[in-house]
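Hi all, posting the design record for the shared folder.

TITLE: backbone redesign
STEP: 1 of 1
STRUCTURE INPUT:
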């Protein structure tokens, strides 16, 4: 067997011969682990026993789920003679699992998995490691922690987690451990969903409330800036059923995605202009009086007053965040918004109060007013007629919804405002809170209370946070603090964080970097210590409250390869060494119970049912227009925006990094670039699996429009380089008319060992409103490989 240390060198120096190795991987996995042996791709005759007997007749059955950032299919694993030989969708799903879910069986049997701790034995990035024991690894970690704390305090230890494991057991354990340790520096800034956190949470009162159960009841659906045919395959057939039933499906995206191919309409704006597009739609709706006045008055703060002098909402009681006031047109008095039997005014024109106040409705319209359909056509690159048409269709549809699913449009400088404008549209048109309607996030069960597996103590001292977008600069400048130890788990900063070259420099500077993973990832290559981690079907746990309506039991089916341990086991051993092991060394049954008890579910019930739908098939978020804000209405004015120095009402201004700007940057790099999700990975998870090369792209693909490629002498299939001042991304050109001219599509998730991440070139602007990531507000150029 190839040693981990030898495999590390191989991973750095060469790309393996994937097709040949994939066959070997399938063989190791036994019948059922290779793609040819799943329900989705029936096994070939030569793969089945010659006896014709069912090879799984006597298999033990285990249930788990696929916990990266996706729709979290419930999975069913078959174990024969101690090996996981088949993975398929469980009977709880309404469609088959995707290739990534099925690949869980391959991962359990993959000979490329890490099996023992590895200590760097050469320069960072060289791929040279030596194997050590767990005792040696734990001794070294404790030594480095103690030295860091003694010299520069707890803040000189930094840890970062990602979406590689959204399980409620092994993901949150890091925050519990470092809190018990006395604290550690964390990271700030969200790579995918800051726009939702910083808008929908304030406007509607909660995020992660999605309308996926109502898709088939809709008659008009806008998929805005995301591609659920790839990222939400577990329920994409619901959109198809909606169209089959006579509904209309509109996709807004600069790329003609797999979802657009199934849609009835494709709208292609310039990247980062979605807020302007939405405001133009809103202006059309208001000008043509297509808004739902009854809903606005009853369920939103549209009529609530804002003082012109202070720019603040007027409150009846400054201590009561729900005490907004309105003008009662029946009496001419200013009264509390929820006073019975009043007729609130949406506009104050012609009233004595107009000199002193605006309504929130008026402030929103004032920001939308400059965005005529014609002005938006110039700014967004979408025909004015199309903007007006989709605005009218959405407003007048019997049942309409906007599905944004943390879409790429929010990963821009104006991303928070773009998400907010979508929330405005739904509320203005009353297209939320009813059957077939809604403004969708990526899913979850935030309406159900869950607990933490291990108590997280309050820190005596506030710890600093490093912007992950500026991680490299922060580490190099030791701002806000010096970092001596960096712990990376459930993610890969070298693949996902923007401006990869700066991330690499940071990892090279930090004296001791620890990565916990199943594989020698791009981040692991630049680490001092790599710890092998157990994966799905190799550990017990529970998934609750992220991306799924189901609380799901995660059962251990097989042992992890070699000496790999779960994150919980790793932190438990470290906790023992620091004399707070009792908080971690708790039976799994108790830990799972701590998570699900607030939801009213017992461990025994979950063990019996494996997964429990906590919202039900008829679930409607914000049902009947009852929002989860203090006022129980949609609140449009956002205080945190004002505190950050931004307009508290959503607006639009062209971004700093835009190809239409008259500056040297735009002349030097004239192409917009946007990130694409791929079928083969969830971010960087699964991307290294050799089996994926048999069914997916084998190298990074650069999607280019015919005109842009021709201007650069590039043909379909050419090796190309995408570049800007931040770095280079290498791939193969895919040239067609399925992307807006002036825009290139870069695939997310490729590893350094596979040619490098597209994050080498992505925008690392900080600070933006709400801390949104600007990866889709990136300017580049493309050239043929020399």
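Okay, here is what came back for every position:
SEQUENCE:
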């Amino acid at each position: 067997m190839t040693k981990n240390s030898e495999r590390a060198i191989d991973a750095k120096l060469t790309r393996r011969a994937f097709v040949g190795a994939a066959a070997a991987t399938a063989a190791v996995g036994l019948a059922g682990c290779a793609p040819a042996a799943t329900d989705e791709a029936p096994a070939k005759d030569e793969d089945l026993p010659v006896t014709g007997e069912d090879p799984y007749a006597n298999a033990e059955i285990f249930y788990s789920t696929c916990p990266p950032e996706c729709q979290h299919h419930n999975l069913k694993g078959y174990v024969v003679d101690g090996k996981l030989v088949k993975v398929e969708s469980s009977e709880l799903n309404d469609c088959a699992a995707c290739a990534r879910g099925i690949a869980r069986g391959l991962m359990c049997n993959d000979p490329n998995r890490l099996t023992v701790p590895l200590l760097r034995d050469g320069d960072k990035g060289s791929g040279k490691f030596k194997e050590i024991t767990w005792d040696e690894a734990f001794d070294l970690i404790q030594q480095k922690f103690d030295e860091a704390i003694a010299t520069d305090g707890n803040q000189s230890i930094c840890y970062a987690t990602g979406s590689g494991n959204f399980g409620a057991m092994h993901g949150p354990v890091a925050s519990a451990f470092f809190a018990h340790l006395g604290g550690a520096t964390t990271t700030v800034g969200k790579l995918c969903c800051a726009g939702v956190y910083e808008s929908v949470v304030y406007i509607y009162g909660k995020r992660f409330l999605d309308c996926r159960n109502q898709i088939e009841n809709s008659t008009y659906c806008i998929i805005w800036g995301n591609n659920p045919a790839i990222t939400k395959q577990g329920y994409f057939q619901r959109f198809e059923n909606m169209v089959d039933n006579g509904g209309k499906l509109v996709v807004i995206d600069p790329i003609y995605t797999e979802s657009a191919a199934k849609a009835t309409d494709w709208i292609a704006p310039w990247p980062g202009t979605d807020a302007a597009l939405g405001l133009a739609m809103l202006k059309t709706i208001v000008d043509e009086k297509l808004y739902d006045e009854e809903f606005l008055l009853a369920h939103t703060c549209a009529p609530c007053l804002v003082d012109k002098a202070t720019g603040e909402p007027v409150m009846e009681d400054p201590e009561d965040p729900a005490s907004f006031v309105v003008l009662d047109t029946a009496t001419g008095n200013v009264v509390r918004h929820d006073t019975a039997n009043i007729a609130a005014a949406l506009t104050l024109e012609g009233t004595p109060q107009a000199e002193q106040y605006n309504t929130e409705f008026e402030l929103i319209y004032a920001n939308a007013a400059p965005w005529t359909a014609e002005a938006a056509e110039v700014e967004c690159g979408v025909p004015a007629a199309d903007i007006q048409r989709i605005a009218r269709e959405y407003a007048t549809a019997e049942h309409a919804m906007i599905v944004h699913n943390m879409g790429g449009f929010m990963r821009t400088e104006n991303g928070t405002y773009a998400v907010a404008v979508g929330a405005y549209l739904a509320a203005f048109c009353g297209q939320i809170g009813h059957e077939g309607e809604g403004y969708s996030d990526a899913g979850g069960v935030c309406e159900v209370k869950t607990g933490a597996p291990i108590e997280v103590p309050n820190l005596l001292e506030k710890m600093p946070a490093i912007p992950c977008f500026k991680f490299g600069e922060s580490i190099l400048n030791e701002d806000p603090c010096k970092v001596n130890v960096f712990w990376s788990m459930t993610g890969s900063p070298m693949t996902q964080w923007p401006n990869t070259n700066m991330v690499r420099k940071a990892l090279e500077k930090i004296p001791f970097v620890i990565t916990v993973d199943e594989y020698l990832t791009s981040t692991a290559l630049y680490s001092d210590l790599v710890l092998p981690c157990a994966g799905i079907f190799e550990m017990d746990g529970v998934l609750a409250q992220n991306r799924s309506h189901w609380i799901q039991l995660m059962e251990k089916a097989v042992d992890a390869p070699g000496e790999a341990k779960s994150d919980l086991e790793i932190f438990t051993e470290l906790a023992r060494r620091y004399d707070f092991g009792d908080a971690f060394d708790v039976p799994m049954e108790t830990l799972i119970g701590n998570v699900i008890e607030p939801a009213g579910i017992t461990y025994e019930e979950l063990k019996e049912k494996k997964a429990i739908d906590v919202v039900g098939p008829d679930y409607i978020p914000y049902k009947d227009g009852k929002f989860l804000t203090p006022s129980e209405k949609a609140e449009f004015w956002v205080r945190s925006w004002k505190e950050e120095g931004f307009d508290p009402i959503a607006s639009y201004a062209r971004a700093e990094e835009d190809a239409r700007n008259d500056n040297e940057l735009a002349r030097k790099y004239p192409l917009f670039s946007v990130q694409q999700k791929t079928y083969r990975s969830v971010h960087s998870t699964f991307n290294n699996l050799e089996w994926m090369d048999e069914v997916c792209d084998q190298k990074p693909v650069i999607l280019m429009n015919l005109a842009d490629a021709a201007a650069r002498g590039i043909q379909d299939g050419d090796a190309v380089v995408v570049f800007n001042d931040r770095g280079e991304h290498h791939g193969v050109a895919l040239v067609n008319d399925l992307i807006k001219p002036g825009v290139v599509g870069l695939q997310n998730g490729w590893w350094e060992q596979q040619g490098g991440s597209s994050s080498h070139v992505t925008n690392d602007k900080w600070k933006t409103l709400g801390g949104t990531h600007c990866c889709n507000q990136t300017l580049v150029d493309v050239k043929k490989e020399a």
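COMMENT: The longest helix spans residues 134-152.
Let me know if anyone wants the other runs.
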